[in-house]
C-alpha cells in the first residue's frame, strides 16, 4: 500500500515537472520572458521538492535498516501525520520492524531452549576449533573432566596427558575408549567426534560419555552367562562321575561284606569295568573342557603384517576344501581393489576359517547354498571383511549368546570358536559382529 502511494506521488511530481518544463520552453519560444521566469522558478522549486521528497524517504529507509543492523528494536515511526504517503510508509516500516522483532524473539527463545538442552545433556559436549580453542563445554563435560572452566584443549594436560593427546588428535568418525583415574574413582569414557561448520568456521563437535555403569552392567551380565554355561557343562560331566562312583562303591562294599572270601563274579566285574571306563571318559572330557578354557586365556599378542585380502580369501577356500558340504556350496567373492589389512595372518585365518566352517555346517545338505566373502573399505577408512551365508540363520533370542564362551547349539560343538574369534579381533583393536535374518542370510562382520 505504501509503495503504491509513493509511486503515484512520484508520478504526480514528475508529470507536474514535465508540464512546467513544457510551459517554460514554450514561453521562451514565444518570447514571454516574464512567464518563462515564473515557470523557471516553479520548475526549480519542483525539482528541489522532488529531490527533498526522495531524500526524506531514502533517509527513513536507510535509518530503518541501520537500526536493524545495530539490533535496535526501539525504532518507531509516527503514523499520526497528514502526509498520507509518508504515513503509509511509516506504517509499513513499523510492521516490518514488528515482524523482525517477533522472529528475533522466537529465535532467542529457540536458542535458549537448545542451550538448556545442551547444558543439561547427560553426555559431555565440546566444540573445538582447529587451534584447540574450546567454544562450548556443557556441565556434563566439565563434571566428567573435573574442570569448572574449559577454554582450551591444553587445560586437559592438567587432568591427564594421555586424555589431552587423545582429544587433541581426535579424528572425525573415529570413536575411542579411554580410562583414567581421578581423585575419587576410575572413569571410563567413550569419545567420538563429528565435523561441524558454524559461521564459516570449521569446528569439531566432541561427544564424551561416561560408560562406567554400562560396562559394569555388561560385565555382570557376561559373567552371569559365563558362570551359567560353566556350571552347566561341569555339572553335566561331574554328575555321571559322582553317580557311578557311588554305585561302584556300594557294589564293592556289598560284595565285600557278603562274600568276603570269594572273588566277585564275572558280571559284577564287568559292570565295575564299564563304570570305571565311563568315569575315565568323563574325566577326559572335563580335562578337555578346562583346556578349551585355557585356550581362550592364552592367545598370544598378534604378530601383525600387511596382508592381501584376496590372498586370505584364496587360502580360506583351500583350508576349508575338505570340509563336509564344501562341494555343494557356491563361493562368491567381492573385494575392493588392492585391499590390504594389517594383522596376524594365522589368527585372522583362524577366525575366517571358523566362520566359513560354521557357514558350511549351517547350510548343510542344501544344494543351493551360497557363501559370500566380502572385503571393503568403510567411509571412515576402516577395513571390513564379511562372511555371509544363506543358511537357516540364527534365532533373534540367541544372537546375544553366541559369543559367550562354551555356549553352543551343536551336538558336537565346544562353544569356544566364536568367543575365541571375537577375542582375536579385540586383540587386533577391531570387532566381530553378527546380523541374521532367519531363512534368508547371516552375516559375520570383521572390522579392522
From TrEMBL:
Enzyme Commission code(s) on record: 2.7.13.3
Catalytic activity: ATP + protein L-histidine = ADP + protein N-phospho-L-histidine
Keywords: ATP-binding, Kinase, Membrane, Nucleotide-binding, Transferase, Transmembrane, Transmembrane helix, Two-component regulatory system
Domain Histidine kinase, chain residue ranges per copy: 229-448
Membrane-traversing stretches: 7-29, 35-54
InterPro entries named in the record: HATPase_C_sf, HATPase_dom, His_kinase_dom, PAS-like_dom_sf, Sig_transdc_His_kin-like_C
Molecular-function GO term, any one: ATP binding
GO terms classed as biological process: phosphorelay signal transduction system
Name under which the protein is recorded: histidine kinase
